[in-house]
Amino acid sequence: MRGRDDRFSAQLHAAICDARGKLLMQIAFCLYKYFPFGGLQRDFLRIALACQARGHALRVYTLEWRGDVPAGFEVVLVPVRALTNQRRYAKFSRWVGEDLARRPADRVVGFNKMPGLDVYFAADPCFEDKARTLRGALYRLSGRYRHFAAYERAVFDARASTEILMISPLQGPLFQKYYATPDERFHLLPPGIALDRRAPADAPQVRTAFRREFALAEDELLLLQIGSGFKTKGLDRSLKAFAALPVTLRSRCRLIAIGDDDPKPFRAQARALGLGDRVSLLRGRSDILRFLLGADLLIHPAYNENTGTVLLEALVAGLPVLTTAVCGYAHYISDAGAGLVVPEPFEQAALDQRLARMLSDAPARQDWHRRALAYAEHADIYSNAERAADVILRDAA
Question: What pLDDT, on the 0 to 100 scale, is given for residue 396?
């Protein structure tokens, strides 16, 4: 899907420059996959649109694009294949490098770690730290390890020049531990919650219609979990906590989990726990705000989460949150008084107890709801894309 051929792209860029009377940037964005419901992908799209809104030309290199292509985006589907992800990613980087040699860009911005980037958006946690703390020594002899370690070093090495857009204050010290990355290359961004996730004026009516559609009785409680990668997001923990609720409370609850992942093992777990008819697993979708307004609690007991954008999406919609401290954005829930955070090291019993407490205390949920909406009024949790564009376009004419 080449949005334009090479000659037309060059002519268009020249026309823009002539019309504006100044040199605008050609920005190349690189990410392995685009689909509309991923957190990284939504961050990419907002940042790309912010750069485009300032008049700059966009080219996107990717292996896969699912969904509509925004107007003005030149999307280049990189035609490489391999048996393993690491070999495919290596071929992707080489192909992109060769194309950029033929058609240079003023900035190369990556949303996955790879060589040749001017700017990297650090959506993923430190790979080297995970390899050394969560894996055995033999793992570091594998080809997979060598590939991802080398690609991370290409971005974070002290001798590299890549500017790094950080979205979690927890990860910077880890990268510096392994790579001695200079402080001045890190740019900590605020979160970038889309304004359309905020509770609208007709939120009560939306909630009523949603609950009618999903046949939720007035006294039923809806637990909501959102995020692709059910295993990493801790859906198994959520199901265990649901099953551990007191019988009378559990009988009033339902759980909906939304994400692009294989639902089969989690459906099997729900059946084994006796929850089969009270758990629904849905594919990613675009009407998430309806679910945030219609639910009674967001549960997000992730095993590993660099940020956790969904925590703030729930917060600005006024939905109380139960999450784990490992999430980079968990502190916003504590700061806002918008729910509860399970401390590290994680214990299932601690999650079970907090879930039961939150579901059985309606006045507390109302208080968390009010505090969340009040926090959403004044907190700087919306400007991620604009601040990222400032760094990407620094020194633009």
Answer: 65
